[in-house]
Amino acid sequence: MEYNFREIEKKWQKRWVEEKTYQVTEDDSKQKFYVLNMFPYPSGAGLHVGHPLGYIASDIYARYKRLQSFNVLNPMGYDAYGLPAEQYAIQTGQHPAITTVNNINRYREQLDKIGFSFDWNREIRTCDPEYYHWTQWAFQKMFNSYYCNDEQEARPIEELEKAFAIYGNEGLNAACSEDISFTAEEWNAKSEKEKQEILMNYRIAYLGETMVNWCAELGTVLANDEVVDGVSERGGFPVIQKKMRQWCLRVSAYAQRLLDGLDTIEWTDSLKETQRNWIGRSEGAEVQFKVKDSDLEFTIFTTRADTMFGVTFMVLAPESELVAQLTTPEQKAEVDAYLDRTKKRTERERIADRSVTGVFSGSYAINPFTGEAVPVWISDYVLAGYGTGAIMAVPAHDSRDYAFAKHFGLEIRPLVEGCDVSEESFDAKEGIVCNSPRLDVTPYCDLSLNGLTIKEAIETTKKYVKEHNLGRVKVNYRLRDAIFSRQRYWGEPFPVYYKDGMPYMIDEASLPLELPEVAKFLPTETGEPPLGHATKWAWDTVNKCVIENEKIDHVTVFPLELNTMPGFAGSSAYYLRYMDPHNHQALVDPKIDQYWKNVDLYVGGTEHATGHLIYSRFWNKFLYDMGVSVMEEPFQKLVNQGMIQGRSNFVYRIKDTNTFVSLNLKDQYEVTPIHVDVNIVSNDILDLEAFKAWRPEYKTAEFILEDGKYVCGWAVEKMSKSMFNVVNPDMIVEKYGADTLRMYEMFLGPVEQSKPWDTNGIDGVHRFIRKFWSLFYSRTDEYLVTDEPATKEELKSLHKLIKKVTGDIEQFSYNTSISAFMICVNELFNLKCSKKEILEQLVITLAPFAPHVCEELWDVLGHETSVCDAQWPAYNEEYLKEDTINYTISFNGKARFNMEFAADEASDAIQAAVLADERSQKWIDGKTPKKIIVVPKKIVNVVI
Q1: CA torsion 40→46→48→54, rounded to 10°?
Q2: From residue 197, how far is each of 201, 249, 554 by CA, in Å?
Q3: Number of neighbouring beta carbons within 10 Å of residue 289
Q4: Blockwise average pLDDT, block size 10, the chain, 944 residues
Q5: Is the peptide bond before 512 cis (omega within 30 degrees of 0)?
Q6: Are 430 and 415 in contact (CB under 8 A)?
Q7: Cβ atoms within 10 A of the Cβ of 924, count?
Q8: How far apart are CA 614 and CA 600, in angstroms?
């Protein structure tokens, strides 16, 4: 019977659906294993061959674990909210929901063709009210919680309200936006609005003034990763820094737990280090500086208070409130011009850019250690969100301060004996302190660090700062609170209404609050977000429902929030919802959560290291505090798949003509390289007629060929529509089959590495599957499988494969597994093996990689159940033992021939046999050997 992959794949994809092969339920008799992919945003372009890479890798592992008798959860869904669908709605008027559904249907069609073992009964979509009900619910819980630093957990906000009424906030150790102080009497005397404003300072979900990336053309705030070179990634519109009142999540409160949790999970060291750097823990001191000729003073955070004797200037972040306070009238115009320029740069760009810019404020600050008045500058290399947004500059021992001082001609004062700062700053981690204070000045304070080691100086200074009330010792984190508002339509609505300008939560029983219809998807003429166009977007607190805006009376009917939630809202706890997707009473049933616990294997890209993988860990830790999640870390093991790059092809047009010259002849002409659609190129040979039909301007194209063919050039580039190098997986499946696509993507190289797509090698994988098929059927459709016992050689070949593949799957070394399959099938083919004993085990071993053909052959072998329910074979070391050893026979160290010996042959017998062999006589040449060296199982060396 011929290997008809089209019929086989359609047959089994249909049967898997009919028999619910991949539907899973909790089963206490089985050990669970939870596999999860970072779920996709369904774009209009559909999948290209790079997208399924991670899905195939995780699917192989999921199938493998099922064959090992694990109860495997392998769900899939869609991150369905996003800016592209909204932008398309603005351009065409088509509702984003329609666009999204169309895109999802296209994705599902493509995914089904590849043969994944997803449990589609658990599908979720973040735009489904049934799903975002629980996103809104979690937000409400965060709003009604504060973070207790003593207990290191989220606690109900009611606890604070009760405590404030009795004690004020004296002795309170809670995460907050700013340090404030009040008594119980002051609290009790405050109005409802004033109390709400104070509580907002402590809530985990809170409204706060924060700097954002504002894109006026898109009418929304953008995340850092949505901005490139000062413009929006989508559309290329200008982006500026702007202070806005936004919903935020107090992610920073969880900074230490986020750090500690990294030690409990199996992620790559590089990704863990990326998160550690992003969280940015540093221990230091907050120190007060007074402003010269003013009552003002400000706080700086430094990890090296011991270097304060070397402070020669101060620097403020452009966003700091101190800028307005410290800018003198003489400097105002210059400062305003500088601030206008820095608005166009995101924080990431400012961190990455090493160029020096700045402006003098006109004010001076008094160094509390030296009494000197040092100038206060403003520069965008200081960020408002880290520390206090103001720094003390020690140019002798910090590279950015050094570059700034050199550029603006400011003093550079070394603090380490013998260090040379004439060309660059000196990294002051070791050495003996000097100039602290300088010997030629009258000491301003009673602290001297001269003669101490750096380590001694750090501890001495911390102690001095604390004892003399110059500041406080503090642990600081670079991690910022997450901005949680977006001025978009297509996102989760906030379950919030406003009373007297303060936010209140709608009743939990009224969730979900569904996204309303709007006439336009753009911001309103008055600058409100798109939800400002909704005419029925007011909350009736009596009837607990949404009603028309015209009924707002600010007594019982109030306006609802006009912002929507950001993209990461829906992806932060989706792994929990997959466990129990049809539960209308809770995010997840506690018993079900107790069974699945957390994700055992999470597969996705490294680009999410400082976004989704931080936010989802924070979100899960909060739910853990609430008693909702039984595990503090959501993703136990993480594998980052690499990227499949495009392999572009080029044609070469002779300048000012419509004639195209083949690759190896192009140097004879002046040519322009032009990208050509890779789908009309095969093995770098251009299909000439397809090229002429590709675009109207090429209809009259002429060609200069080599050996009758047009050879294209090629290059490895990002897979992109603009480079015409996007390969649609549907085309590969149609031409070669899904099993070939699955195996070829894994064969390209290690899962974690990026590699170029090269269709040139796919034929080899397809031929392998055909050869595998030929072990079962002859070319004349004769069924070859017999019940004869396997030979030693056949068992050795099979068990060598099982051992190799078992180890490779655990290490995600799928590319070497596929090489091993090819070797094994070749060996069995050459042995003319058709033994059921061998082929059954081979089918099971290959099934995770090529499920369709293996299901068909498993069925042919007489099994009534799916190959998914077979048992993963165990290899037997006995079959791998060598009966004979091939020895290299050398004379005076030079290899001359080889001999076979029994694996347990004694050394004396080997020596005797070598000397007796007639081939040895030629090299001995009648002489008496001085000695014979036998290296067991390797070599025999005859020394003459």
Answers
A1: 20
A2: 7, 16, 19
A3: 24
A4: 94 98 97 96 86 96 98 97 84 90 95 98 97 98 98 97 96 93 97 97 94 81 76 82 89 98 97 95 89 94 92 95 95 95 75 84 96 96 80 95 96 96 91 94 93 94 88 87 93 97 97 96 87 97 98 98 95 97 97 98 92 96 98 97 92 96 96 94 95 95 97 92 89 96 96 87 94 95 95 96 97 96 97 97 98 98 97 94 90 94 90 92 90 94 95
A5: yes
A6: no
A7: 13
A8: 18
In this structure, the dihedral spanned by the alpha carbons of residues 441, 443, 447 and 450, taken in order and rounded to 10 degrees, is: 20
Name the token pair of 662: 């083949």
Q: Residue 315: CA atoms inside 13 Å, Cβ hemisphere, count?
A: 27
pTM: predicted TM-score of the whole model, two decimal places? 0.86
Cis check: omega of the bond before 129, within 30 degrees of 0: no
374, 367 in Cβ contact below 8 A?
Answer: yes
E strands, 379-516, are 390-393, 471-477, 482-483, 496-499, 502-505
Specify the pLDDT at position 902. Answer: 87
Rounded Cα–Cα distance for residues 210 and 480 (Å)? 10
What is the amino acid identity at position 534? A
Cβ-based neighbours of 878, under 8 Å, separated by 6 or more: none
Cβ-contact 647, 748 below 8 angstroms: no
Beta bridge partners of 496: 505
Residues 397/334, Cβ–Cβ less than 8 Å: no
**CB 418, CB 430: distance < 8 Å:** no
Tokens encoding 111: 């995914």
Residue 776 has phi, psi (to 5 degrees) of -105, -35
Helix or strand (DSSP H, E) at 817 = helix 814-830
> What tokens does 71 get?
């109860």
Please tell me the distance from the alpha carbon of residue 599 to that of residue 596, in angstroms, as a whole number. 8
Q: Which residues of 117-151 are buried (b: 16+ CB within 10 A; e: fewer)?
A: bbbbebbbbbbbeebbbbbbbbbbbbbbbbbbeee
Nearest to 849 by CA among 754, 736, 729, 738: 738
Strands 71-73 and 32-37: parallel
Cβ atoms of 314 and 299 closer than 8 Å: no
What sign for the dihedral angle of Cα 593, 594, 598, 599?
negative
Give yes or no for a contact between 360 and 377, defined as CB atoms under 8 angstroms apart. yes
Closest CA to 603 of 760, 746, 744, 729: 746
Q: What sign results for the dihedral spanned by CA atoms 557, 559, 564, 565? A: negative
Distance CA 83, CA 579 (A): 28
Q: Looking at the chain, how many residues does it have? A: 944
The pLDDT assigned to 225 comes to: 66
Report residue 411 as tokens. Answer: 């003093």
The Cα 877–Cα 893 span in angstroms is 34
- Which residues, including other chains, have CB under 8 Å from residue 612's CB and lie 6 or more apart? 38, 568, 571, 572, 604
Residue reference for tokens 């009473």: 585
C-alpha–C-alpha distance, residues 598 and 611, integer Å: 20
Query: In 10 A of CB 826, how many CB atoms?
Result: 13
Amino acid, single-letter form, for residue 862: G
